[in-house]
Each structure stands twice: as C-alpha cells, then as structure tokens.
Amino acid sequence: MAQTVNMKVQELPYLPPEVWVLVFGYLNTEEKHTARLCCRHFRDLIDHPSLWKDYTAGLSYVPRYTSGFWDTVQCRGVSRATVQHLRPKDWKILSKSLPSLNTIVCVRERRNYKMKYLDNLCEFPNLTSLGVRNATWVEPLLVQCQRKQLAERLTHLSVCNIQMSCEDTVEFINSVSRLVNLEYLLFHQQESEGLGRMRPVPSYIFHNLLLSLKKLKHLSWGMKGEPPVPLPDNYFYPLDPENPGEYGGPELISLELVNYTEIILSEYALRGLTSLKSLAVHYRYPWDGIQCNLYSWLNHLQQLESLSIIGGNFLASYTEALPPQVTSLTLRTSICACQMNSIASQLKRVEHLDIDQNRFADSLCKQLPTLFPQLKTLRIRFHREEPKRDLLFLNKLRHLERLELITRQTYILISDKNKTWPSPSLERLIKELRELSRNRFSIMTTMPKRDVFRECDCIWEREETRF
C-alpha cells in the first residue's frame, strides 16, 4: 500500500513548495500526520513552522519521548505546550528539549502545588504565558517568579479550578499584583471541603490588584461564593490614590465574569469601565430570577463591540439596552421570534452570532437572513431537535464565511443510544446546502479546537458525538 502511495505521489506534477504548504494548511492535525507518511518530501513540507504556529503540544511522561520526537517538534517551531504529571527531572528534560516554549499550561494535575514544582520555569527564556488547572495550592506561589526575574517576563496568567483557603487566596492575589507586566489574567477558584466557605476576593485586595496591573487588558474573573455583605458599587472601579475621585485601574478591553449571580454585584458595578469593548457574563444558574443588573450595565457600556450572555434572566429584561455597536453576539438562553426581532432592530451591525435553537425559537434559520444580513460567522446550538429543511434558507446569507451546527449529548433523543451527530438526514441537508451555496462558506458540525489557555473547563462547552 505504501509503495502504491509513493508511486502516485511521484506521478504528481511539480508544484512549488509554497503551494503545497498552502494546501496542507487546510488539513487538520490528524490529516497532516497521515499525509506526512507518504514521502520524505511531504514530511519536510508538513513540518514547516507556518503550519504549526497555533498548535499546542500535549506532553506527559516525558521519558517516553525520543530525540527524533524533540527534533520534529523543534523543527515545527512549536511554542505552546500542555503538560501533566511532570516530575522535577521531567521539567529539566523539557527545558533542554524545548527551550523556545513561550506558553505552558499545567493540566489535569490534581495535586498540591509547592514552590519547588515550578522552580524550572525560569529555564524557559521565552516563557511569557503560564496556566495551571485543577490543583490545590497550600504554599505561597510565584515567589520564585519574583526572585528569578520571571515576574518581569510573564504577560499572561491563567489559573482555573484552584482550591485555596480565603487566606491563601489573599496571599495569591497579592503575589499576582507584583507581576506588573500582566496583560491577561484568568482566575477561577473552586470550592473544596476543609478549606472554609468560599468568598469573592475582598474589594480592597482586588483594588490593589487592579491598581498594580496597569498594563492589564483582558480579565476573566471567577465570582463563585457569596459575600457576607454585597460587594461595593466601585468593585471594578478602584480610585487613583494620587488623583482622588478618578479611576486608577487599567484600561480593560475585555471582561469576563464566571459563575456570576445577581446578588454579588450592584447595578452600578461596571459604570466606570469606559474602555471596555468586550463583555462576557457566565451566570451560575440558567435563570437567576432576581432583578437583572445587565440593563443598567449595558446602558453605561454603549461602546461594547462584543457581548456574550450565558444563562441568567430573560432576554426581555435587557434587550432595549443592547449597545448598537455590537458586531459579535453570543446568547445562550431561550429565544423566541419576537425577541429576535427586537434584538435585530437594536443591533444592525452583527457579523458574528452564536445562539441556541430550541423549541421556543420557531423557524430561526428562516428568519436569520432577514434579521442579520451581514453575518460572517454563525453558530447554532440544537437542543431538542435536529435541523429541518429551513436550514437551507441560510444560503441567503451572502456574506457568510463559516457555519457551525453544534449539539450536545443531553439534548437530542437521549434514549436513542445509536443516534449520531450529524445524523444521516442532517448530512443530506448539509450536502444540499453546499450545492445551493456552491461551497461559498464552510460548514462544521463539531466545536473548533479550543485554546486551552483562554478557554478553561469552567466555560468550555464540550460537545459529544454520540447520543
């Protein structure tokens, strides 16, 4: 079989290497590895760094990797890696084999972190981004970062599902405050038995963080836990100690609130964030049932260009306050036809839309070309039924470049264990839609591969392929 493949490859007309690299760019990782086996020429082309610039290597049990493996990864210019269960000597091997790494994410660790575990981070001279998942920190961390100058290099820190006591949380946040060059910060705590009741980070500690991180542009903040008293109105608005009455924090571009409930922040909490361009709110519950603060927030954030709302109160409670400049909109809640009409009348520039198709949504696909004619990317999540023939109306979206049809295991025909996604009927519809559109836009039925640094388990929506 391999000989037959090689003969066919040799019979192909000559194409410049840059053309082959362009073609290989359309392949996923598995397809690239398959094509790489055809011949030495393809192997060299597929290892070109331009094909792996967004690739994240997954590494575990480092001793099993050969020198040939490390040579290949270096040849591809891989600069991002997830690691798990590394021993101190494994870190040393990694720092010698891939010293060019600029992003490291420690995943699935489920371990107690001590300072010595991360001692070898300073051996990566290009390291600027650090992520940690699913761990318990019982000792002060990041001290070695400050001691060995790593603090000056870190620009991105992503910490999710970390179990800490309230005292350790305060100490951790104070340590992060010293990473003065941070531009991106993700911090999501996880409740744990034996560590005391979880509380939001106190305002005076949070204010010190914001006052210290002047370069911070992107903040993803966990809001799990109920404060003994409501957080102050200026929780996200620290005052400048040198200019009384004026805002002293960083000029945030994007803010993400995770595990949020309405009782935590007031309706005035985001009033001072005039530089904000993107807001994402992940409610802890599908429906809060309490007075909605979004209406007041959005009224004071009319400069927003991207808005994501997952769960929370009914759309009608804040639709009228939607900022007209929004071009990217994600709504993970029940939507009916009248609400879609109201949203479309408010937002006339939407180019990227992510919504749910559920039993309340009527013929959503039929309405979209009229409501949002400028759409370039569209993701529809199907909860209770498969797409029907009205899916073909999406051909009328003349600017559409990418269509994603997504579902999850718990939504469609749960009792039918042989159900697959996409089903044969959906595959026929997709084929018909491609013919109608002459392949003008791509159609996907699975979620894009996630960015493990930015899209942690708290917010990543894992889709299943079987029902």
Automatic annotation (TrEMBL):
Domain F-box: residue ranges: 9-55
Protein name in UniProt: Uncharacterized LOC109204058
InterPro entries noted in UniProt: F-box-like_dom_sf, F-box_dom, LRR_dom_sf
Highest rank taxon of the organism: Eukaryota
Listed Pfam families: F-box-like (PF12937)
Gene label: LOC109204058
